[in-house]
Amino acid sequence: MIKIKSFHIAIISLLINIAYSIYNIALGTITHSWWFVTIGVYYSVLSLMRFTVLSIRKRGVKKTLKNFTGIMLMLTAIPLAGMVILTSFKDRGVVHHEIVMITIALYTFIKITLATINFVNAGKKHSVTISTLNHISFADAAVSISALQRSMLVSFGDMPESDIRIFNIVVGSVVCVVVFLLGLGLLGIHTKQKPTK
């Protein structure tokens, strides 16, 4: 059985991130939704972080970059929290066609799968690069779940607006906490970089 390399998964995730960030920014601009614009910008920041991590080769710089990535994840959780509160009262979500919803659900499933495979493949490899990419992947997947949940509630079913607001606040808040903890976790990780990495 051919093992999927974490590096290859990171490249695939980067390409998907870039495409999805453009999609969300465009969708947010067309529908005048600050939620989608913010999510698009968030994915753009993750793409930049992932690209930077993949580009750096020097060991000392990698450790510094790991800490910087952790701080960036913690900081991005703050505007995300603000947007969760703001959009819960002013932007309940956009109703999508079934095909669009299937696309969003497929994207979310892919991100969760890739993040999990990346984590499993990391195994006992104490690599600064791999641990950093893992945290970025899970931060990506967490926000994808929030975006999917938000869209599904308004696209399917007749749930009262008050219930939709509660779900958006609860799930959005949990995601913000998860992203913050992922960033905090990077600051607390001390990994050994192998000479061949």
Instruction: Give me the Rg, rounded.
Output: 17 Å
Order of helices and strands: HHHHHH
Task: Identify the overall geometry.
Answer: globular
Number of strands: 0
Uncertain stretches? 191-197
Structural write-up:
With 197 residues, this protein is mainly alpha-helical. The protein is built from 6 helices and no strands. The chain has helices spanning 6-31, 34-55, 59-90, 98-122, 128-155, 161-188. Helix 1 runs antiparallel to helix 2 (34-55), helix 1 (6-31) packs parallel to helix 5 and helix 3 (59-90) runs parallel beside helix 5. The protein is globular, with a radius of gyration of 17 Å. 36% of the residues are buried.
List the helices and strands and how they pair.
Elements: H1 6-31, H2 34-55, H3 59-90, H4 98-122, H5 128-155, H6 161-188
